[in-house]
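Table S2 (text version). Query chain:
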Amino acid sequence: MFHRQLSRHTWLYTEMVTTGALLHGDVARHLDFDAAEQPVALQLGGSEPADLAAAAKLGERWGYVEVNLNCGCPSERVQRGAFGACLMAEPELVADCVKAMRDAVSIPVTVKHRIGIDTIEHYDFVRDFVGTVADAGCETFIVHARNAILKGLSPKENREIPPLRYEVAYQLKQEFPHLEILINGGIVTHDEMDVHLAHVDGVMIGREAYHQPYVLAEMDRRFYTAQTPVPSRLDVELAMQRYIGDLVEKGGYMGAVTRHMLGLHRGIHGGRGWRRVLSDARRMHAVRTRAAVDAMFEEARAHLLPGGAPSLAAA
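Corresponding structure-token output:
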């Protein structure tokens, strides 16, 4: 919901949800979302075709517009479940998974993957993976342009240490021009996105959208030719303040939302003080009313400008 205040058109993806969590857990907790958040894609983790098909059906039933199979996560926990990046070594199995999901749902089924695993760095490996999975009907591939090191690196290190090789994603697009190829990994600025879009069909950003979320604010005008005004940071904050007010009046926890908003004023004078107020878990556990939410936000905004930022009532 926070990112939707910044961009109406950028596609949003869930965190990876395992098939086990959906088939044996609380489905609503994992899948429920507000229609205002659309378009949203559901990213699944799993390696059993029947289970993935059942999970994809749930995703379609809950209103997701795409199902994405994660073949890029390198964590040991995911490897123990025999899915994520280690699936790249089994392209025929991934093809079976894709076919099972495509047979089960009418929404697109896509795959997110790395360009190699461990010391396998030759282009033929990822080319054959994409070709095999495409033969099963997958038309969209999101390419994290790094190898996944399955042993010896943490997930965080796997997002930073293996070198980026964007040219591999470019080569995939050249070899498979009929496929939609998106690129992911280390992309920060709009100008960088423009460079990549000269070679591939789309760009996915992850960490930058989380740590510097205001990067999304100009997306609609720059990449989707939207004529709507670029939202200000204050516009976004006030919209989320209303949303959180509704949440706490229904018994929700304010910090469950604000912890994902802490990058909104990053780099802005007073941003550190703003973050300090809105990351005070002890105080937020006591927030039970809309008035208390408004008071915390107004206290936080007071750090941004000498005279304090406008209040919700004034806006």
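Notes on Table S2: Residues 307-315 have pLDDT under 50 and may be disordered. The radius of gyration is 21 Å.
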